[in-house]
Amino acid sequence: MNKLLAIAVMAFALSSAFAADPFTDAVQKAYAPYRTALFKTNSNSQPEAQQAMQQAQQTWAQIVAQFATRAPAPYDRDVRFAVTLAEVASVYAQAATEVSQNQLPQAHETLEKVRDLLADLRHRNQVIVYSDHMNAYHSAMEQVINEGEKLLAQPDGMQRLTAQAGVLAYLGEKLTAEAPAEYLKNEEFITLAKAQKKSVDDLQAALFALDAKAVKAAIGKLKGPYSRMFLKFG
């Protein structure tokens, strides 16, 4: 629970910051093929996963070539800047090998490290982007998904899960409140954001009704709306 509160406080504290440097902008553009690679390694098509991995690797190689030896502000004082870029490239290489061996679930888990490395890089340099709000929500959502049924089996599980759902609802609100202006004018984003919000509303409604069966069903429906939103706008 403390971890979830820390995530919420961090998201709130950084909510007013924004990116306006060429490296962060380039990484945000590179995030699109990265999200596709994550999505494709979570499917059953090795050829599609290989194609997505190739695109993600090529895009990242361009970023390394452009920025590794000349980091723009505010990253120019980060002694681990070039190291982190190399670590991301290494993660991509490992995931590509796993995809070539048709180990798609393993490749998907490997690729998750890219998100963490880039989030840590931005955090070290006091940069916040919309993806960080998506990441904060994702962390809280995964905790609910992974621990939900176990909590329900405990005497105070319904109450504890209700508290976690409250944090999830707060972080979910940030996905709209902190969205770029162009997202808020995009009908697809609006539709996906409504679906994401409904998934949390349904969970809270089931918890307030003390309906364990409905709670389990609602937990199972959290990931889909988020994943669709993340793939296009995360």
Q: What does this entry look like structurally?
A:
The protein is mainly alpha-helical and 234 residues long. The protein folds into two domains: 106 residues, IL-4 antagonist (De novo design) like domain (Four Helix Bundle (Hemerythrin (Met), subunit A), Up-down Bundle); 104 residues, Four Helix Bundle (Hemerythrin (Met), subunit A) (Up-down Bundle). The protein has eleven helices and no strands. Helix 4 runs antiparallel to helix 5, helix 6 packs antiparallel against helix 11 and helix 7 packs antiparallel against helix 9. The relative contact order is 0.12.
Topology (SSEs and partners):
Layout: H1 2-13, H2 22-41, H3 46-67, H4 81-100, H5 104-124, H6 130-152, H7 157-177, H8 181-184, H9 187-208, H10 212-219, H11 223-233
Helix pairs in contact: 1-6, 1-7, 2-3, 2-5, 2-11, 3-4, 4-5, 6-7, 6-11, 7-9, 9-10, 9-11
Key words describing this protein structure:
single chain; 234 residues; mainly alpha; Four Helix Bundle (Hemerythrin (Met), subunit A); 0% strand; disordered N terminus
